[in-house]
Amino acid sequence: xxxxxxxxxxxxxxxxxxxxxxxxxxxxxxxxxxxxxxxxxxxxxxxxxxxxxxxxxxxxxxxxxxxxxxxxxxxxxxxxxxxxxxxxxxxxxxxxxxxxxxxxxxxxxxxxxxxxxxxxxxxxxxxxxxxxxxxxxxxxxxxxxxxxxxxxxxxxxxxxxxxxxxxxxxxxxxxxxxxxxxxxxxxxxxxxxxxxxxxxxxxxxxxxxxxxxxxxxxxxxxxxxxxxxxxxxxxxxxxxxxxxxxxxxxxxxxxxxxxxxxxxxxxxxxxxxxxxxxxxxxxxxxxxxxxxxxxxxxxxxxxxxxxxxxxxxxxxxxxxxxxxxxxxxxxxxxxxxxxxxxxxxxxxxxxxxxxxxxxxxxxxxxxxxxxxxxxxxxxxxxxxxxxxxxxxxxxxxxxxxxxxxxxxxxxxxxxxxxxxxxxxxxxxxxxxxxxxxxxxxxxxxxxxxxxxxxxxxxxxxxxxxxxxxxxxxxxxxxxxxxxxxxxxxxxxxxxxxxxxxxxxxxxxxxxxxxxxxxxxxxxxxxxxxxxxxxxxxxxxxxxxxxxxxxxxxxxxxxxxxxxxxxxxxxxxxxxxxxxxxxxxxxxxxxxxxxxxxxxxxxxxxxxxxxxxxxxxxxxxxxxxxxxxxxxxxxxxxxxxxxxxxxxxxxxxxxxxxxxxxxxxxxxxxxxxxxxxxxxxxxxxxxxxxxxxxxxxxxxxxxxxxxxxxxxxxxxxxxxxxxxxxxxxxxxxxxxxxxxxxxxxxxxxxxxxxxxxxxxxxxx
Length: 763
Ligand code: ACM
Prior knowledge:
By secondary structure, the chain is an alpha/beta fold. The strands form ten sheets. Strands 8-9-14-16-17-18-19-22 form an eight-stranded parallel β-barrel, surrounded by six helices. A seven-stranded mixed β-sheet has the order 1-7-5-6-4-2-3. Strands 25, 26, 28, 29 and 30 form a five-stranded antiparallel β-sheet that branches. The longest helix has 18 residues, at 62-79. It is flat and about 90 Å long. The two termini are 44 Å apart. The model is unreliable at 1-25 (pLDDT under 50). Bound molecules: acetamide.
């Protein structure tokens, strides 16, 4: 795969003194609200809130009642505050003198817009829609810091509306399955980030997750795979569970857009019903099975009329289940090898008068789009669907960077920005050892925050076609629900602000300040969010007496309210009063450092413990080594390893910089195997294998480059094929000065994939 890249460089506004003062007032007013509201007019004074405060809704106004109940639910959860709801005649809503929070419909607002007026006597949430009232409630919830059941909300008027109508998150439930309860919880936190589209990736090569009554084998066969370990893995959502989830999503103003992948990413369906496939049966060939490999599989649906009837029958049930006006039909990464090789497909193409296989996919897309159109729905697909003849009402989801969106908008198609790599949340958030498995590329919270959806080269008319933005949570490497949450949060908060808030008003340091109370809300909801933006990173260098330690994190140290990284050397947990890290410091061998980051007095990272003992002087864990290349970089979990291992699967090779070899040190290496279960097509031929000198291969050690003659080779013969092995140690030759060591595996075959867990170099 080759991907485009996009990064939104956004100049920081310079602030004069007067502007700084205004911003400070505004900050005090909206403090804690994510996404940043469009307009905040601060007043003076505050509305006091306590358990006697009443929520008031007009008689017969179901939307106002729902918004008030949701607010009550949220405050109960995060503040232990239980507020009564009183239903009053509409005429009394504006006149009641009691200290209350009122919800009311008012005409003149946009689809999701609302106004929130806070005076010392009362709070009024007004909107023209259920969604507007709901978002007003969410903002009001966030104006009260989480924690106590009393507080004061500064007097202000908020007039708010989203910048983009489509603020989405894609969840891949095929590669790993998440429970219905988890899906509901995701929808819930999406709602209080004002995210409004859950794009639910339900089918792929590795599992078909949606019950289709007419075709039971899609789930009895297609929902289950045999993992490389031999374990059976799978699951699916029954139609009853889906209906329940769709109903729940409606209460949260989240639209669920189901994705049924075609013509590629179809292996699970073809495994269930082999007649759907395009592969030419060859002697001795077996039918495809649900895949336990990652990457791009070559199995495609064929173009038989019966296959289209099958897909239409599937979509007919999908339409029954999901009320969304749009259905996602995938369309990405459909490698045409099987179509090119199939006599039946070629015959069909001739009948249709189509020569080009890409045009054949366009025919496929148009046929399905036509069916959906006849049933009152429109299609959305990945940017590969953008071909001549595409229906004008089809929506193009741009994942090859942002260029697909530009082309679609110019062509007059609606489009959603979901660009790799910035909005691909399977990329890790930092290079800290605490990141769970995923893709090796770092897409930090700041990278997401600084993504700018605006395309200055579009005309006003074309710009209207850009509906919004979406981040993708591909779950190949997210085996647990906790890890899905870690990868999603808080990057989804940054996404929400990019999608909702006016780009001109967004400021990164201000966002970080508002993140501290958001973290408290995540905790109150039991969400496993990432602290990567604040988590202390440690740079350690060896000195004659001990170590020099550098601490840093991704947060700008000059941001208002940033309490910095605090640490202790006496084993106690650091508080906001502990020593603040300023410059590198030296400690003797045997020191234990406990460090954490603070925003004002709130601890915003977990505590990082660094044990600087004699072993730390010798040991380099995988995360302290540098992969030699950046082909397909992954962070993988190997049984028995100390943590996830960074590897370029195209080239299992690492560099250890500046190693002192003058004493002829001893090298110990711990190696970890994993099955090589990646479908990477022709790229597989680019991986170096067959260069081993012994039967199982060896770990080679080179200096000052990887193509120099090997200094040493540690044979893998006898290494455990399922877990970490510490290879017999090796004395390295005595060489003056510091050198970069290159450690790479020479191997007889691709499988297993050998990786370096850690090395020790020293006495
Ligand atoms: C994609 O990432 N294949 C849409």
